[in-house]
Amino acid sequence: MPSEVVDNNIAKISGLVDDAPSLSYSIYGEGFYAFNVRIKRTSGSFDIIPAVVSDRLVDEKFVLPGRFIYIEGQFRSHNVQGETRSQLKLMVFARKVILFDEKNEPVEFSAAFADESGDYYNADCGDNANALPQITPDMNEIMLDGFICKQPVFRITPLKREIADMLIAVNRPYNKSDYIPCICWGRNARFCGKRAIGERVKIRGRIQSRVYVKKFPDGREEERTAFEVSISGIETVAAQ
To answer: Which terminus has fewer CB within 10 Å in the chain: N or C?
Structure first.
């Protein structure tokens, strides 16, 4: 398994299971179940982050709403074709799951699983593969190493806040890539605004959900949720 699978896209989240898992898709008899994880921010508000877990990692019947869960994996994207256009869907794809039972005792699940190619490999790596990671409530950490694939947009809001939006492509095996929207503020925003398409960047931050209202030409309004990486640190990587 290429080392970049582990190193260039690492997401770690912990929170409460927000809803019952539902079957998202199957590959060669292996089911992948989708549900949301509710993670509290320091401000007191919440991020509702979608996750996908293989039934080879954990029996979905144990993933109950209100249970505390830790997931380590990758923040992935895929396109879903709608009636008029395709829509980018994002989720945390689990490689390791630690689910806390009704006695608040951790139950760890980490085993072989398939990716979209149908090829299996083991999620455990290294001598300390079975060591319980340091878990804190409402953990929300992500590290990405990818390439800018859309010109960053820098802007200043009416309240004089500096913001930049950026889309990066993170490679994974079998000629696939994940396209991850990112947002940053202040000094990081000014830095991102000067970047160019094709530059390689390393990012650390958190995954956030954001509710907005989509307005249509006929006057209709629809509430939607966007997911993105809120950048706390970013650096460029020199071409080799």
So the answer is: C
In this chain, the answer to whether the domains covering 4-140 and 141-237 adopt an identical fold is yes
pTM of the model: 0.86
CA separation for the pair 204, 81 (Å, rounded): 30
For 6, the 3-state DSSP assignment is helix
Q: Which two tokens stand for residue 10?
A: 């690492």
pLDDT in tens, 155-176: 999 999 999 999 999 999 888 9
What is the residue type of 151? Q
The tokens for 73 are: 């994996």
Closest by Cα among 32, 26, 28, 67 to 51: 32
* DSSP symbol at 135: -
Distance CA 228, CA 208 (A): 6
Q: Would you say domain 4-140 falls under CATH 3.40.630.30?
A: no
H or E element, residue 237: strand 221-237
Instruction: For residue 51, give both structure tokens.
Output: 């996750």
Cite the DSSP H helix spans in the chain: 4-7, 186-193
Domain boundaries, the chain: 4-140, 141-237
